[in-house]
Each structure stands twice: as structure tokens, then as C-alpha cells.
Amino acid sequence: MLAVWLLVLVLGTAYLAHRRTAPLPALAIVAVYLLVMGAYSHAPGWLMVVFWLLWLAVAVPLALPELRRKHFTAPLFAWFQKVLPPMSATEKDAIEAGTVWWDGELFSGRPDWDKLLAYPKAKLTAEEQAFIDGPTEELCAMVSEWEIGQRMDLPPEAWAHIKQHGFFALIIPKEYGGKGFSAYAHSQVAMKLATRSGDLASTVMVPNSLGPAELLLHYGTEEQRNHYLPRLARGDDIPCFALTGPLAGSDAGAMPDSGVICKGQWNGEEVIGLRLNWEKRYITLGPVATLLGVAFKAYDPDHLLGDKEELGISLALIPTDTLGVEIGRRHLPLGAAFMNGPNSGKDVFVPLEYLIGGPEYLGKGWMMLMNCLSVGRSISLPAVGTGAAKYTSLVTGQYSQVREQFNVPLSAFEGIQEALARIGGNAWLMDSARILTANAVDLGEKPSVLSAILKYHLTERGRECITHAMDVHGGKGIIMGPSNYLGRSWQGAPIFITVEGANILSRNLMIFGQGAIRCHPYVLKEMALANREDRDQALLEFDDLLMQHIGFAVSNAASTLILSLSLGMLGKVPGDRISRPYFRALNRLSAAFAMLADLSMMLLGGELKRRERLSARLGDVLSHLYLASAALKRYHDQDYPEHVRPLLHWAMEESLGKAETAIDNLLSNFPNRFLGSALRVLVFPFGRRHQGTDDHLDAQVAAIIGRNAGDPALEELLEGCFRPTSTDDPVGALQHALNLLQEVQPLQKKLHKAVKAGQVRETPGQSEIETAVAAGVLTVDEGEQLQRAETARRVVIDVDDFSKEELLPSEGKVR
Questions:
Q1: Membrane-spanning residues where (predicted)?
Q2: Which tops the pLDDT comparison, 178 or 90?
């Protein structure tokens, strides 16, 4: 009987904390229960003393705030100030950059789903849709991956089309001659280009990302915007931005590039300006750029502008024909043909007006970059990763139907279905996250943490899709030539993993390392108080935050227990019968994540920065919760369509399974092993609930990408993918072969039945079809129809070969 009283006490107290009942009313309820328990439960006296002491340990600090501040908060505040890890200026700018959006809700442990579902659905305007259906479709049709690779450049007509139709001006407002498109439209354009050519997408992406049009729009002076933005919109200037150097990649604060404030001659007059020296590499569009944005550290040794000598990272905009600028050579990133190369400057003197934003923004360059990078990472690279997933869904789904082994299509084999499911499931999940995040940008957000999540997970999943596609295609995928529609995607996959922050860095340091401080409801505010000079007022504010933080932590721990025991059934969630269980699962995991994040930061403090694998696992949990949120939002926005349900189930089981795996691995490697074991009981009292997708679900998703054009689930999966129709195009030939083979399926069955019955026997020098026609099993017309389909199949299956002479290096080739 006593055990029942104790269980009710524990669960009742946890439920009060889960409901976030105000502390004093909650304590009063617990006190009444303890009185009743002492009177009727026959509990030992010593046990009741322990419970009352625990009650007093909580009640006294709450009831006597002065005593709490003196003996608890003040020592803790002093310790917090002492152990707070040092933060560089670049780290501080990165953490403070951007805005907190749905990531903050996930960090809260109690996401407001009604808030997420109330955000408007992402839509294109008529003008944006017309641009995608017209100039974008035309640009895709102009290029061939093989020809681009042979010439190591886009064809001249593609460059002319890009400039003529304003592809470099998607984000530039109309008043400057640009398109003024939404972030969602920008993403749609980039994604469609990526489904045709990574080189084409890269060429268009840079001017619309960190171009420097984005920097000019946010920070440029009116004079700079009026001069440069119309030129960029017309394509008169081709821009690039130079940040990375040989000695400073991820650690931009270590860049040796310098700009010294000095006096010099400019247009016949002596002016105060900057003498710049830099060496950069990996700069996309650098070899053809006419306008160069460059990041450097500014110094004022002669105090021409003030007392400070080290002014910080700054950004300047320099025409590439300026004296001292060296530009024009090329890198070859894994054989990709998009323009990329090094540049340098030696004693380049420019006036202060060349600073982006003018002298006012001297030393504020890292803040400017972080705010603009968060938008670019939300759009460009996620669009490329999603484009790879959609494109591989298209070609691998079709190829697995066209190619046969043992007289059955490849798609009939379970091993192939596993790969097809990973491709198709990833494509829909990635697209959901891409759409949601682009829409957040259109809503005015600058989602720095979410952009890191998308950059990492969508480029990694894009690479995974390409890998699976190569495995399914086998020899077809590894023989280079005009008919290989996968080879260059395989070659280029690591490029998008590497650029704009290597993925190892993004996962291990940025997602949780930045998110824990930026998105947590209290940590950033507590850190700010630790550096305040007015200690007495800071202590009062810290005490208030601390009480809220403790309540937040206790509530999340209680919610983890209550939601785990109840299988998430407590509380109302939105959705239909399909999605409601998933909302409940996310509530449970969000509470567990918030609790584990708090505990990890409390136990490890600044050491968490160096425990990268723990930080990465916490980041993985946050990432998969966000991806799952995006899938549910998309399903809701489409009004719960039945044809999407296999894709939703796959996306949710994938995300929930990986989130639970990350939590499982975190607990197995928790610094305090005893606490890790105790937390496992709290988080997984009945064991893990989600193990990932199963064979039946994989088979359903695999079937979708092998269906005929026009199927609603397939069309949604491939929405925005360029789909050539010409049989001269290898992808168009694939669709043509599939169409013909599907038309002759009854004839194929008729032929196979006749072969099996012995009506058609193998005849030397004749094909089965010819023998069947000779035997009267097939009519002449039926034989011709089957032969056309088989010829189309061979066009798809065949790979390229070259003569010795064709492979000799010609003049101008890289040797």
C-alpha cells in the first residue's frame, strides 16, 4: 500500500511540474498530500521526515528570496562568471546573428504546434511561376552536363540567357531592375537548375546568396545600392565574394588578410583609405568576376580614425580592374566546370567609400557576413541537395523499371527497393524542410541555426541519394560519356558538403553549439548578465532568470517522464488520425531533448565545446525534430492527402528513429555513466518507440518512384524537377524507353508465356521477337512494336566508348 502512496506522490508531483503549475500552489498541493500520506499511509516516520526536508529545501528558497540570493544565487553567480568560457568576437557575432524561430520552440520542450501550422503556406506568384516555367525551363534545356564538362564552362548562349533574363538578380528589388522574388521562388529556381546541372546551379546561386547583392541590400549605402544593384541586375557586373584563404578556412578570425588605414592618392586627390593585401581561394565566379567583395582585418596604426588600432573584420567592394588586384586563374573542384579560382591583392589602395556600408560599418564585417550567410545557407545549398534527391528519384525510379535482370525489372528486388526507398523518402523529407525554411525567410526570419541544420542534412542526404542511385545503376553510372546522366553528380557531391562551412564543422560545432546558446530561452540572457558591471542589479536579474531556468528544467524532466509513461497521450495535439500520433511523439522527444540539453550544459559548461561528439548528437536530435516538424507542416498545408501518407510515414519514422538513436548514443556516452543510465529510464521507460522505417514501408515508397508519370504521389515527389522530353537527351531517352516498355507489357507477357510453353524456341542468329513472329505467336506489327521498345531499352542500357584518337588531349585541355 505504501508503494501506491509513493507512486502517486512521484507521479502527481511530476504531473504538476509537467503542467507548469506555479511553484507556491504546487508546493501547497504537495504539502496537503504529505499530511494525508502521513496520517493514512502508515509510512515510517523517518521517511516522512525525509519528504518534509525535501519539501522545505524547495519551499524555503522560494518563500525567502533574500536568503536565497545571499546563500544560493550569489555563490552560483560568482561561479558562473568564473567558469563561463571565453568567447571570441567572431563567436559572439555568430551566436547573435540571425533570429530564433521554430528551433526556439523545439528547445522549449513544449512546441506550439498550432503556431507552426498557422504560418501561411509557401506559394509562388504568377510572375514567379512564369519565370520557372519559361526562362528557367529554357535555360535547363540549353545545357548538357557532358558538354559543360568537355568545355569546362557553360555555353555562351547559356551565359547570355542568364544575363538577359536576370538570373543574377532574383533577390534584387524591382526598383533596382531586379526580379524581387521571394526566398521560396529563389529556392525553386535554384533547385530546378540543380536537377539539370550542378555547374549551372552554382553559377546562378552565388550572386543571389553572398553575392554581394545580399550584403548591399542589408548594409550598403544608398549610393552603393543605386550604383551597383542595377549593374548586377543587368549582368553588367559579375560578382563574387572572397572570404576563405589558405590559412583561414573555418576559422575566419585567423585570416591574415589586412587593410591598413592610411592616406593615398585617389583620382588626383589625397584621401584617407585602406591599403589592402589579401590572398583568397575557392572563390566561385572569381575567374570571371568584375566586382569583388573581399573580407579582411582592418587596422589603424596611425590613429587616423580614432584611438583603436585593431578595428576587426571588414568588407569592401572592389572592381577587379583596380590596380594591384590579381584575378583570373581557375581551380578545378573535382572536375566541375563552374567558375572557381583564387585571387589576391598586393598594396591595393581604395577609399573608405569602398567599404560595404561605408566607414560606419568598418569592423562589423563578421556580423554582416553571419546575418547574410544564414539566409544563403537556408536557400542555395538546401536547394541543391533537394535537387539531387529529386533528380535521382526521377532517373533511378525509371531506370529500375527499364533495366531487367533474370527477366524481371530491378525494382522487383528487395535490395533495390531499399535503395529506392532511401532516395524517394529523402527527396520528400528534404523538400519539406526546404519549403518550410524558405518560407521562414519570407516571413522575415534569418534562421541561423536552422540554416546550419539544412546545410548539413540536405547536402548529406543529397549525397546519400546520389550514392544509392549509383549503386542501382551499376556499370551504367561509372562509364563517363554523353549518355551518363549520373557521373558528374557523383563527382560533384563532395563540393556541396564542403562549401559554406564544412559539414563536419556544421554538425559538431555549429548546430547545437550555436543553437544551445541562441535558442535556449535563458542561457544567452544569463551569459549577458555575467559580463555586466552593475553587479547588484545583475545579481537580481540573474536570480529571477535562475528561478525560471530551474522551473524550466524541472518541468522538462517531469514532462519527459509523464509523456513517456503515457506514450504522449496527455494533452491535445492537432492533425488527423495519421499525424496526431507523430505530434505526440515529437512532444515527448522535444521535452527529452530540452532536458538533456540543459543537463549537458550544466554538467559540462564550456567543456561541451570540446566534447564535439556529444554536441553533435544533441544537434542531431534537434535536426531530426525540425525535419519531422517540416514533414507534418507540409502534410497539414496540403490538407492531409491520402496519396502522400506513405511518404509522411517514411519521413516521420526516419526522423523519429534517428532522433531516438542520437539520444540513445548520447546516454551511452554521457560523462556521468550512472546519470546516463538513470536518464535512460526517464526517457525510455518502455524502451525505444521508433526504430526507423521497416521493409513494408520501404516497399511502398520504392513503388512510388517507379510509377507512371501523372501519379499524384510521384508528381509531388518530382515537383520542380527538370524533365527533358527529347530522345536525344539521355534522361529524355529514359522516359521514352519506359513509355514504350509500358505500352508493350501485354505483348511481353504474351511472348514470355509462349517461351515458357515451348512455342518459341531459341534460334541461332534470331532474337526471341523474330522467332516469335516467324512462329506466328506475334504479328509483324506486334513484333515491330516490341522491337522498338527493346531498341529504346538498349539506348538506355548502353554506355559510351571512345576511340584512341578521341581520348588524346587536345590543345587547351588541362594536362
A1: 43-64
A2: 178
Mean pLDDT value across residues 664-685: 90
Note the pLDDT of residue 815.
42
DSSP state of 350: E
Active site residue 500: yes
Q: How far apart are CA 25 and CA 34, in angstroms?
A: 14
pLDDT (tens digit per residue) in 292-309: 999 999 999 999 999 999
| Distances 753 to 743, 763, 775, 783 between C-alpha atoms, Å | 17, 17, 14, 15
pLDDT digits (tens, 9 = 90+) for 6-35: 778 788 887 777 778 888 888 888 888 788
Nearest CA to 170 out of 150, 199, 153, 192 is that of: 192
What is the spatial distance between Cα 723 and Cα 701, in angstroms, rounded to a whole number?
Answer: 21
Instruction: Kindly provide the b/e burial profile for residues 65-97, where b requires at least 16 CB atoms within 10 angstroms of the residue's own CB.
Output: eeebbeeebeeebeebbeeeeebeebbebbbeb
**Separation CA 271–CA 287 (nearest Å):** 30
Q: What is the pLDDT of residue 554?
A: 84
Report the C-alpha gap between 644 and 28 in whole angstroms: 50
Query: CB–CB of 378/277 below 8 Å?
Result: no
**What is the three-class DSSP state of 679?**
helix
Put simply, whether the predicted model's pTM sits higher than 0.90 gets the answer yes
User: Cell numbers at residue 627, please?
Assistant: 525535419
Cis omega (within 30 of 0) on the bond before 212?
Answer: yes
Q: Which residues face 294 on adjacent strands?
A: 242, 316
Please tell me which residue in 128, 279, 445, 500 is annotated as part of the active site: 500
Nearest CA to 77 out of 394, 530, 387, 491 is that of 530
Question: What's the pLDDT tens digit per position in 44-53?
Answer: 888 888 888 8
Q: What pLDDT score was predicted for residue 93?
A: 67
